[in-house]
Design brief:
4-stranded mixed beta sheet, alpha/beta
């Protein structure tokens, strides 16, 4: 239609907006309706004239099979639907490329893909939820270390916790081939775990198993489940004691219990972060060799330092760095330990060390969405914004229901590239989804100011000062840009927004 309109006067052109969704519809004697139709109608209203708008489900199914770039429009609330729908504008003109447009492109994996749904706590005790959740995370981590398998991240899989949803629907929403699900029942000193693998295209049960063990055999059970799932999905993998990268995270069951509790908690305020840190400290006290506990402590101290919650900021940073280095020394095959250390080295301006540990994290686990996000942050500070945006787009593909900080990093990359319009959507969503965080609001305020939206920028600064009344431009001068001009560009936006100088 667009091609035909090229030779037609503007008054005589026929222009259409199209919305595309993937979902169930109800056909009642020729009338169609239902949630799938409601979403498509809402997407149609978001499209530009002669434009196409698609849902996240369509994007996951489409991948890179078609030469389209998709611009993320944020989460859209749809009438009669419980969960917001992620919307994308299709840049269907093939003259648009990720490099030229600065928009996100999404890759799809040719490897067998799967999601591990949260294992159900069947113990009859809600306080044991953290245990079944931690067991799920162990399986996700174990599977992710096999490069021939594409695994959806923990953040996305846990959005289905407590929901009754058919595997084909999960597969359609996340664009995966297989679903792993199961349950954990703990009674006295015994544990029973059930697990099954389902082909979402046929809703066919491929494999199922039940494990009855003494509680002390937990890690043996984890190993057996991971090996069984992987061997059924990708029979080509060589699973041997020498080649497996699955490791027992702690020899002390009590220490690992504290680690699982900490991973089940949030660090969105100073008090919450302190509570999480105490759990990891208890784990280290019980087992000084627990690498994941040291890694968790590093993240807690880093959050304190970045959020300006620490009474002694430099001491907090040094503690974070020491914990991350200890985690890598204890478990050199843990991708998370490497990317946490990489982020800390970045703020020390150790660019070579950052690049090295990001590369190690991705070599150990190519599907670690967080590692791709940290790589995107690093590239933004290096001034390579095109590569940064592509890396963050990969992180978002690996984790379709990405955390707020992924979006914050994406907005930051766009701001550094001076693509302010593209920066607005992810920064607004990151700020909305993380109401206690200053970081995305700083980038949002600078972006709004650069766009001339001064009143909204000042309102954003007021929100920053409500979280920390002493915040000022000087506190942002430590940002590790390689090029001083990029730092000045960032500080200029903060000043235009009205953030106090000192």
């Amino acid at each position: 239609i667009a091609q035909k309109n090229a030779d037609v006067s503007e008054k005589e052109r026929l222009e259409f907006r199209i919305g595309v969704n993937l979902g169930d519809v109800i056909d009642d004697r020729g009338d169609i309706y239902g949630e799938g139709v409601n979403v498509a109608a809402r997407l149609q209203s978001l499209a530009k004239p002669s434009g196409i708008c698609v849902s996240g489900a369509v994007l996951a199914a489409m991948g890179n099979r078609l030469p389209f770039v998709c611009h993320y429009l944020g989460e859209q609330k749809i009438k009669s639907t419980e969960v917001p729908v992620r919307a994308y504008r299709v840049c269907w003109d093939t003259l648009w490329t990720p490099e030229e447009s600065g928009q996100m492109s999404v890759e799809i994996s040719s490897r067998p893909s799967l999601v591990v749904l949260p294992f159900v706590n069947a113990s009859g005790d809600d306080s044991m939820d953290y245990f079944s959740d931690g067991f799920t995370e162990d399986i996700i981590t174990g599977l992710s270390r096999f490069r021939d398998v594409f695994v959806i991240s923990r953040n996305s899989s846990f959005t289905y916790k407590g929901k009754s949803i058919r595997p084909p629907d999960v597969g359609m929403e996340l664009g995966v081939d297989y679903v792993v699900e199961g349950s954990v029942r703990i009674a006295a000193e015994h544990i029973r775990i059930t697990a099954q693998l389902i082909d979402v295209r046929t809703d066919h049960l491929i494999w199922a198993e039940r494990y009855d063990r003494e509680l002390t055999d937990l890690f043996v059970v984890q190993d057996q489940i991971t090996r069984s799932v992987v061997s059924n999905v990708v029979g080509r993998l060589m699973i041997s004691a020498e080649e497996r990268a699955i490791r027992m995270p702690s020899q002390d069951m009590r220490a690992w219990d504290y680690v699982l509790r900490a991973q089940h908690m949030v660090s969105d305020t100073r008090e919450h972060n302190l509570n999480v840190r105490r759990q990891y400290e208890e784990a280290v006290e019980l087992d000084p060799e627990c690498a994941r506990a040291h890694c968790g402590l590093a993240v807690c101290h880093l959050i304190d330092w970045v959020s300006h919650w620490a009474d002694e900021p430099e001491a907090s940073y040094e503690q974070a760095l020491a914990c991350a280095q200890r985690a890598v020394a204890l478990d050199a095959v843990d991708s998370k330990a490497h990317w946490v250390l990489a982020e800390l080295l970045l703020f020390r301006r150790d660019f070579d060390g950052t690049r090295e540990h990001v590369a190690q994290a991705l070599a150990l686990n190519p599907d670690d969405a967080d590692a791709h996000a940290i790589r995107g942050l690093y590239l933004s500070y290096m001034g390579d914004t095109t590569a940064a945006i592509n890396s963050l787009a990969t992180a978002i593909r690996l984790n379709p229901l990405h955390p707020a900080w992924h979006l914050g990093f994406m907005g930051f990359a766009y701001y550094t590239a001076k693509n302010y319009e593209a920066a607005l959507v992810p920064l607004r969503e990151a700020s909305r989804n993380n109401p206690n965080s200053i970081s995305p609001r700083l980038k949002l305020a600078a972006t709004l100011a650069q766009l001339g939206k001064i009143e909204e920028a000042k309102q954003t600064v007021a929100e920053i000062l409500s979280l920390n009344s002493d915040y000022n431009v000087g506190l942002e001068a430590h940002r590790p840009y390689r090029d001083p001009a990029d730092l000045e560009h960032y500080l200029e936006g903060l000043r235009l927004a009205g953030l106090p100088e000192r």
